[in-house]
């Protein structure tokens, strides 16, 4: 009944399918399955269309009445949720998830690459997330303290010159860093952060990012915090924001959760900074050097920290790159017809088998597995 649920929510069930669906729903456990889907798999979008829910409810009831009135009487508890999803489809905000793939489990073993810490002297260290340790230099000074999935520099011995470390997260892994000023950085998969072991008492607190990270910056009005991302500088005093700068996106997104940030085009300060307010996304286009500002639901851009992946109006080609990075697998697409097709989808802490099962069940995108490689047919 997986496809029938989708067709129901899309309003494309035939009369014969409606009769079969009614029989399926006589089982209370099946009713619970349907209600759980329409309730739980769209929670991120509920607030955005709450005011239009009654209108959507009336529309879906009218559609059901036109087909077969008993359907409405059978399902009083979930009809509004179905209406909600129908409206989301109309607004272009419909996010499918991996719910449908429970019977399509695929065994894929992701690669297990290591998190790497490069010290200022060029020494490379492998970071294991299953322990607690204190690292000191040859003079007995603390370099950093690691507590499982976080490295902290808050106890570092002060130095008079800047010494940079670089943390690199491979595909499939995330990691946290507490900088010497107490700033917290949550680094996403396939990213790197170059930062001082300790900030100097004078001058800006500057770090360098590739990939994606969430920053919770400690306030210091005398020493602004600057994140350098390619040709863009993000300047703050104390705030929370997310930066995404992956190569396949061809632009840099800065989403502000709290406080305020300034976006500065590197070496073009005379053009003036673009200031963001909470709930806004600034997008820097590297080809044109232009910056646009939009109001957004910030949770859509920060939910990756909870293991969720959300694809909002992305081509299949870009989605595959993001799946490779999130799961640390290789995906080969041999179906050129769909690589530029646009999808809306989100998945909540599921394995890659469920994601592939969703695309197979709902969009008839077939695939096969060869070790760590997924081949789209």
Main sheet overview: 18 strands, mixed
- Provide the CATH topology of the largest domain: Jelly Rolls
Q: Approximately how much beta-strand content do the residues carry?
A: 25-35%
> What percent of residues adopt helix (DSSP H or I)?
10-25%
Treating each run of at least 4 consecutive H or I residues as one helix, how many helices? 9
Low-confidence blocks of residues: 40-57, 66-78, 84-105
Write down the overall mean pLDDT.
78
Category from helices, strands and their pairing: alpha+beta
Walk me through the topology.
Blueprint: H1 2-10, H2 15-24, H3 28-40, H4 53-67, H5 69-74, H6 79-91, E1 115-118, E2 124-127, E3 132-136, E4 142-147, E5 150-152, E6 164-169, E7 175-178, E8 184-187, E9 191-196, E10 205-216, E11 225-229, E12 232-236, E13 240-245, E14 251-258, E15 261-265, E16 274-276, E17 280-285, E18 290-295, H7 299-302, E19 308-315, H8 316-327, E20 330-333, E21 342-348, H9 352-363, E22 367-370, E23 373-376
Structure described in brief:
This protein has 377 residues and is an alpha+beta fold. 25% of the residues lie in helices and 33% in strands.
Describe the structure.
The protein has helices at 2-10, 15-24, 28-40, 53-67, 69-74, 79-91, 299-302, 316-327, 352-363, and strands at residues 115-118, 124-127, 132-136, 142-147, 150-152, 164-169, 175-178, 184-187, 191-196, 205-216, 225-229, 232-236, 240-245, 251-258, 261-265, 274-276, 280-285, 290-295, 308-315, 330-333, 342-348, 367-370, 373-376. The chain has 377 residues and is of the alpha+beta class. It folds into three domains: 2-93, no CATH class; 115-300, Jelly Rolls (Sandwich); 304-376, 3-Layer(bab) Sandwich (Phage tail protein beta-alpha-beta fold), CATH 3.55.50.30. The chain has an 18-stranded mixed β-sheet that branches. A three-stranded mixed β-sheet has the order 20-23-22, with helices on one face. Strands 19-21 form a two-stranded antiparallel sheet. β11 (225-229) and β12 form a beta hairpin. α4 packs across α6 (79-91).
């Amino acid at each position: 009944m997986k496809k029938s649920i989708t067709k129901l929510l899309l309003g494309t069930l035939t009369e014969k399918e409606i009769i079969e669906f009614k029989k399926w729903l006589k089982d209370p456990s099946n009713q619970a399955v349907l209600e759980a889907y329409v309730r739980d798999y769209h929670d991120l979008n509920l607030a955005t269309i709450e005011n239009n829910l009654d209108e959507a409810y009336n529309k879906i009831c009218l559609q059901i009445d036109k087909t077969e009135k008993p359907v409405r009487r059978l399902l009083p508890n979930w009809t509004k949720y179905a209406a909600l999803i129908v409206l989301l489809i109309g607004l272009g905000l419909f996010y499918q998830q991996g719910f449908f793939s429970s019977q399509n489990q695929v065994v894929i073993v992701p690669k297990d690459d290591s998190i790497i810490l490069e010290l200022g002297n060029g020494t490379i260290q492998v970071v294991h997330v299953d322990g607690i340790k204190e690292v000191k230099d040859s003079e007995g000074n603390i370099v950093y303290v690691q507590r499982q999935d976080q490295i902290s520099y808050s106890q570092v011995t002060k130095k008079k010159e800047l010494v940079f470390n670089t943390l690199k997260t491979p595909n499939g892994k995330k990691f946290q860093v507490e900088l010497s000023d107490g700033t917290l950085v949550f680094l996403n998969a396939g990213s790197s952060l170059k930062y001082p072991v300790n900030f100097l008492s004078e001058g800006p607190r500057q770090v360098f990012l590739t990939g994606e990270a969430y920053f919770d910056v400690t306030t210091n009005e005398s020493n602004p915090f600057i994140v350098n991302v390619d040709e863009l500088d993000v300047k703050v005093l104390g705030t929370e924001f997310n930066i995404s700068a992956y190569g396949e996106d061809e632009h840099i997104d800065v989403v502000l959760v709290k406080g305020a940030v300034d976006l500065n085009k590197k070496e073009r300060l005379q053009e003036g900074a673009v200031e963001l307010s909470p709930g806004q996304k600034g997008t820097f286009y590297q080809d044109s050097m232009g910056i646009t500002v939009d109001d957004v639901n910030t949770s859509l851009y920060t939910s990756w920290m909870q293991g969720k992946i959300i694809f909002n109006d992305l081509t299949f080609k870009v989605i595959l790159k993001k799946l490779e990075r999130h799961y640390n697998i290789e995906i080969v697409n041999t179906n050129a017809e769909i690589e530029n097709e646009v999808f809306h989808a989100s998945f909540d802490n599921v394995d890659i088998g469920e994601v592939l099962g969703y695309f197979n069940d709902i969009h008839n995108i077939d695939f096969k597995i060869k070790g760590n490689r997924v081949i789209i047919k």
